[in-house]
Amino acid sequence: MAYTATLQTDRIPTVRRGPVSVDYLRTHPTVSVEQAAALLGISRAYGYDMVRRGELPTITLGERRYRVKSSALLRLLGE
Q1: Per-position DSSP letters for 36-72, written without gaps between them
Q2: Which of 29, 60, 76, 78 is deepest in the core (most CB within 10 A)?
Q3: How many CA atoms lie within 13 A of 1 on its CB side?
Q4: Burial 50-71 (b: 16+ CB within 10 A, else e)
Q5: How many CA within 13 A on the CB side of residue 8?
Q6: What's the CA gap between 21 and 58, in Å, rounded?
Q7: Which is nearest to 44 in space by CA: 75, 76, 17?
Q8: Rounded to the nearest 5°, which phi and psi values hold at 12?
Q9: Phi and psi torsions of 40, nearest 5°
Q10: How many angstroms from the chain centroid is the CA of residue 40?
């Protein structure tokens, strides 16, 4: 039995903290690293690696909590 994967490009990626879209970025000043990673099409772990290397602009809250700046993410996406 053969299995085929289908790509659904019309779906907005969702994560447990809520849906993510470019319009969402325009109305929220920050998003979670998980939401940013979903929008960039990368894994959550790679998103955190980018934060540690300084490749993804963030605001640090406390010692271990990060929020990604929506304006910087829009620039990164070319919007």
Answers
A1: HHHHHT--HHHHHHHHHHT-S-EEEETTTEEEEEHHH
A2: 76
A3: 1
A4: bbeeeebbbeeeeeeebbbbbe
A5: 5
A6: 18
A7: 17
A8: -85, 130
A9: -80, -15
A10: 6
pLDDT tens over the chain, length 79 residues: 455 545 555 565 555 566 678 888 888 899 999 999 989 999 999 999 999 999 999 999 988 899 999 998 999 888 7
Structure tokens at 77: 């996406």
Both structure tokens of 18: 């809520």
Tell the residue number behind the tokens 């010692």, with chain if given: 63
* pTM assigned to the model: 0.72
Which two three-digit tokens encode residue 60?
């640090």
Nearest CA-CA partner of 15 in 72, 68, 74: 68
Token digits for 26?
Answer: 């325009």
